[in-house]
Amino acid sequence: MAKPLVSDDLWNTLHSLIPPRKPRRFRYPGRKPLNDRKALTGILFVLKTGIRWEDLPAEMGCGSGMTCWRRLRDWNEAAVWPRLHQVLLQRLDDAHLINWTRAAIDSTFARAFEGVEDSGKNPTDRGRPGVKQHILVDANGVPLAGDITPANVPEVKELLPLVDSCGPQDEDGEPQRRPEKLYADRAYDSEPHREELRQRGMEPKFAKRNTEHGSGLGVFRWVAERTISWLHGFRKLRFVTEKTQDMQFAFFNLGLALICFRFL
């Protein structure tokens, strides 16, 4: 039999984060709402295959595509997906599965179709609309933080926001720990940003612009590229079709959480 999209462990982790629904009316209760686990199955199917919501197969028993879309929207408004990411990061850290000795940061482009909110002209794809997905990972490739910007935003602008939101966070939203070293390519070459990292207790390891290739840093940065390939294994993140930024972040944060779940 095919492996279920929603395992018992994943569901038990997520179930406690989902806000309870309003109680049904005694009179005229209407149609019974779709089971949350079935809705999550439909959401993951769309995330992995990239199909349109209206093409969700009825034989899967996940209800209609729009029902799953609304459930994804409602859970995103309740901050379920970033909270799930945080819960999984905390579990990984408690199990000593996060390597804090070094980290790597990188970004990738995702093609966006017309009408996608907060997309920008991709400078590497003939000015076509797109978004840039930024991630910061530990030495093993665990995604510690991520963000989405228009495609024409320089990578270095997201450096400090990702560093200041990486890993498990305390009650004030501050990271409990930071990696000792941070590796990055030439796009992040900036002396002011290097100094900011040193003030945070991190040693910057950035390739310099206008130098020959072969800095040797790639042996540490490749884990970020591998995590990006995992992220784009979710076809819904490789081609951005969700019109609103909120729904883009819903899929993005869910993808980061699922990658973290693989390390458990």
Report the structural category. Answer: alpha/beta
Radius of gyration: 20 Å
The portion of residues assigned to helices is 25-40%
Architecture per CATH nomenclature, i.e. the level-2 architecture of the largest domain: 2-Layer Sandwich
| CATH superfamily descriptor of the largest domain | Ribonuclease H-like superfamily/Ribonuclease H
Distance N to C terminus:
23 Å
Number of helices in the DSSP assignment: 9
* CATH C-level class of the largest domain: Alpha Beta
Shape: globular
**Number of spatially distinct domains:** 2
**Could you tell me the mean pLDDT?**
92
Low-confidence stretches: none
How are the secondary structure elements laid out?
Layout: H1 8-15, H2 36-49, H3 65-77, H4 80-94, E1 103-112, E2 120-121, E3 129-138, E4 143-150, H5 159-163, E5 181-184, H6 191-199, E6 203-206, H7 218-231, H8 235-238, E7 239-240, H9 245-262
Parallel strand pairs: 1-5, 1-7, 5-6
Antiparallel strand pairs: 1-3, 2-3, 3-4
Helix pairs in contact: 2-3, 3-9, 4-9
